[in-house]
Amino acid sequence: MSLEQDVAAARGAVDALERACASLTRHSGNTLDARRLRIDVARLRDDLDLLCGVPRRAVHEPFAAVHGDGDDEGIGGSGRTRR
Questions:
Q1: What is the per-residue pLDDT across 5-61, written as a single tens digit (0 to 9) for each?
Q2: Quick check: pTM over 0.70?
Q3: How far are the Cα atoms of 30, 69, 76 from residue 42, in angstroms, in the given order?
Q4: Which of 54, 62, 70, 75 could serve as a FRET partner for 14 with CA atoms 20 to 30 Å apart?
Q5: d(CA 54, CA 44)
Q6: How far is CA 8 from CA 23, 24, 38, 72, in A?
Q7: Which domain of life does the protein's organism represent (predicted)?
Q8: SS3 69
Q9: CB neighbours of 44 closer than 8 A, spacing ≥ 6?
Q10: Sign of the Cα pseudo-torsion (33, 37, 38, 39, in order)
Q11: Which tens digits make up the pLDDT trace of 56-77?
């Protein structure tokens, strides 16, 4: 098999696993184990993307523009002390 065929087969297997796990987690609800299973499947997909050289999808950070780099400029901010 070529690399493209192997990648397609692996992606198909991850898709099938995701469908099977979704069916399974419907029975257990939103439990810790169900959430971990969904995260594990998502990590498989991400790892496959990394392994195959596919650029990572952009992560949407809704408050990135509001918070910037997260440095608090108030009291106790970068290099400031309270007097």
A1: 898 899 999 999 999 999 888 888 889 999 999 999 999 999 998 888 765 555 556
A2: no
A3: 16, 27, 39
A4: 62
A5: 13
A6: 23, 24, 21, 46
A7: Bacteria
A8: coil
A9: 14, 17
A10: positive
A11: 555 556 655 555 555 555 565 5
Cβ atoms of residues 17 and 43 within 8 Å? no
Quote the Cα angle for 21-31-10, to 5°.
Answer: 25
> How many other CB atoms are found less than 10 A from the CB of residue 23?
9
- 12 Cβ contact partners less than 8 Å away, ≥ 6 residues apart: none
Query: Angle CA(32)–CA(42)–CA(67) in degrees, nearest 5?
Result: 85
Closest CA to 41 of 29, 27, 23: 23
